[in-house]
Design brief:
four-stranded antiparallel beta sheet; five-stranded parallel beta sheet; 18 strands; Complement Module, domain 1; alpha/beta; Rossmann fold; CD59; single chain
């Protein structure tokens, strides 16, 4: 059983390995035109994406493609050599040449890493319109301002500009920018920012459907230090302390799956199901910074996976959790001889949309769960990334 549980979790965590893909073009007259020509799948020995910019009489010619890393070990060092008024990669000469390489799928998208500075000087470089100064940094990307126009680019393959298409901003004659500053955001889901703690209570006959549900949830979100992290606990009459998985151990889906398979407990009929006690235990002993819980900027959830009705007072502990801002879900799995008490489950969640019930024949995860996930955690793409890395 434990090997089967671990195998399911690991299967969801293994990513398929594919060749690098780079934006490819030849002598395009703008970055936008170049990027429209699409991606090329690189050869096995080509682990870098390259951008080459040539300037003839102040007219750009841009080429991009795949590159073998060996001839390029010293880049961008050669581009720091003197040329004209500044260095080899510059915009102050009518004729210049610049090349640079980067790692990651489509990392050579958009403005080039070599030419444009990452930070913006305190004095605004936008001419005479006196717009407010642009941000001094652009998390997960870079910003370049000149002659009343700011351009934005995300520098990580998993981040994209949001709102889409806002890669340029113009300072208007009225002294206001055309748009608010965009951000570099990740798709949500799968990059969902929250601390997710699960409480488990199962009799031996109903565990399989619960495992399928849990693995579908875990397979739909990215688990990592800047997205979802996991914690878990089995409970019956009381919390099983030997089953605890703390948030500090839940940054990786593989390691969590192994611990889950080793520590998950099942309970025989006749065991009291003290769900309220388990919720209060989690609040007091698991939602703690020293055990890996992140700060107030990261939403918190408690998910209860069960095949039984609660036997104790759940309202007090659940209200304590909700007053702390924690969102509570119940996932109830049909078991012979058990009729679920929806009123008791509602005492736990405080919201009927947070109760999900599953029959013996597991089919698929309800669409309402996906909708709820997006409503709670994906409304503002600029807010669900820890841009300053303060966890």
């Amino acid at each position: 059983m434990k090997f089967w549980i671990v195998s399911i979790f690991v299967a969801y965590a293994i990513a398929s390995v594919t060749a690098l893909k780079c934006i490819t073009c030849k002598n395009a007259m703008s970055f936008e035109t170049c990027d429209l020509e699409g991606k090329q799948r690189c050869m096995e020995n080509q682990n870098l994406c390259e951008t080459v910019i040539r300037r003839y009489n102040n007219q750009l010619r841009i080429s991009k493609g795949c590159k073998n890393p060996k001839p390029h070990r010293n880049y961008p060092m050669p581009n720091d050599r003197p040329s004209g008024k500044s260095t080899k990669c510059n915009g102050d000469e009518v004729n210049s040449f610049c090349t640079c390489v980067c790692e990651g799928d489509s990392c050579n998208t958009g403005l080039d890493n070599c030419i444009f500075p990452i930070s913006v000087p305190t004095s605004l470089q936008v001419g005479h319109n006196n717009c407010p100064a642009p941000p001094q940094s652009f998390p997960h990307g870079k910003i370049y301002c000149e002659n009343g126009v700011c351009r934005y680019q995300c520098t990580s393959p998993i981040y994209e500009l949001w709102p889409a298409g806002r890669d340029q901003n113009v300072c208007g004659a009225d002294g206001h920018w055309q748009y608010d500053t965009p951000c570099c955001a990740r798709p949500c889901p799968p990059y969902v920012l929250y601390d997710s703690l699960s409480l488990y209570h199962f009799k031996p006959g109903s565990i399989e459907n619960a495992i399928r549900t849990l693995t579908e949830i875990m397979g739909s979100v990215h688990v990592g230090p800047e997205s979802t992290i996991l914690a878990g606990l089995s409970f019956g009459y009381e919390p099983v302390e030997s089953s605890v998985i703390h948030f500090k151990d839940g940054y990786n889906i593989n390691s969590y799956g192994i611990l889950f398979g080793e520590r998950l407990q099942t309970f025989q009929d006749g065991t009291l199901v003290n769900t309220g006690a388990a919720i209060q235990y989690a609040i007091d002993n698991m939602f703690r910074p020293e055990l890996g819980m992140r700060n107030h900027r990261v939403p918190k959830t408690i998910s209860i996976f069960t095949d039984s009705n609660p036997d104790d007072d759940v309202q007090t502990a659940s209200e304590n959790a909700r007053n702390l801002g924690y969102i509570i879900y119940v996932y109830a799995f049909e078991r012979e001889g058990v009729v679920f008490d929806d009123d008791r489950f509602l005492e736990i969640t405080g919201d009927p949309k947070h109760i999900f019930k599953f029959g013996k024949n597991f089919d698929s995860f309800p669409d309402t769960w996906w909708k709820d996930l997006q409503e709670h955690f994906c409304q503002d793409p600029c807010a669900h990334a820890l841009h300053d890395h303060e966890l």
